[in-house]
């Protein structure tokens, strides 16, 4: 994971079964830009994992070709629809950060909103994008979001295994629970922040860490 004068990145992955369906990636595109990606496939087992493998291979190929997010996302959607016929889908967040301009261009394709928290505790969910990928041959809309990242900000990307945790009264941990943990602990070293998130859902859960889905956390601290 990158850790330089511009940013530091940490990841955690807790699989629910032996064959997981979550995916995260950090790709250095060139000396200035890198891609952050977290994705989640519908369904379980080998077919779901194979579809996610297609997604990963397609994404890496498109990045090598130097195309932009406005092209990458429709191409990935077409690839997934061709392989699954609309029977499975992938939610994904893809962001390209430029160290020179501190700008993050991103597409949220039906995924949990990543949370950007600035040094003054302002919270900005990253919502712009499109629908989940693979359910229709052509995307009905696509908006590439852009945000300038202030110094000392924290960005959290995650899959729904982190939020869809329930207590004994069937209350969901949810985005609110994640945000509460972040606001209390955002200046911890990133590995310890991840540990605190996992400890919090373990404590909250009525199933004693028998979570219902894979859990992926990808965090980025901007310097």
Automatic annotation (TrEMBL):
Domain PPM-type phosphatase: 6-222
InterPro entries: Bact_Sigma-Reg, PPM-type-like_dom_sf, PPM-type_phosphatase-like_dom
Keywords from the named record: Hydrolase
GO MF term list: protein serine/threonine phosphatase activity
Pfam family, one: SpoIIE
UniProt KW Hydrolase keyword: yes
Domain of life, per lineage: Bacteria
Record SMART domains: PP2C_SIG
The protein's enzyme class: hydrolase
SUPFAM superfamilies, per database record: PP2C-like
Hydrolase in keyword set: yes
Protein known as: PP2C family protein-serine/threonine phosphatase
Organism the protein comes from: Hymenobacter humi
């Amino acid at each position: 994971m990158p850790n330089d004068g511009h940013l530091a990145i940490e990841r955690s992955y807790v699989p629910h079964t032996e064959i997981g369906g979550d995916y995260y990636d950090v790709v250095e595109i060139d000396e200035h830009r890198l891609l952050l990606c977290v994705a989640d496939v519908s369904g379980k087992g080998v077919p779901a994992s194979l579809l996610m493998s297609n997604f990963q291979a397609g994404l890496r190929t498109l990045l090598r070709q130097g195309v932009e997010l406005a092209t990458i996302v429709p191409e990935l959607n077409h690839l997934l629809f061709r392989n699954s016929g609309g029977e499975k889908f992938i939610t994904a967040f893809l962001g390209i950060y430029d160290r020179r301009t501190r700008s993050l261009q991103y597409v949220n394709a039906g995924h949990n909103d990543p949370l950007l928290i600035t040094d003054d505790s302002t919270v900005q969910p990253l919502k712009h994008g499109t629908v989940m990928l693979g359910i229709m041959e052509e995307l009905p809309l696509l908006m590439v979001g852009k945000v300038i990242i202030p110094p000392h900000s924290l960005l959290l990307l995650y899959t729904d295994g982190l939020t869809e945790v329930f207590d004994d009264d069937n209350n969901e941990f949810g985005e609110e629970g994640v945000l509460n943990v972040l606001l209390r602990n955002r200046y911890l070293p990133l590995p310890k922040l991840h540990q605190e998130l996992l400890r919090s859902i373990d404590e909250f859960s009525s199933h004693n860490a028998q979570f219902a889905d894979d859990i992926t956390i990808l965090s980025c601290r901007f310097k």
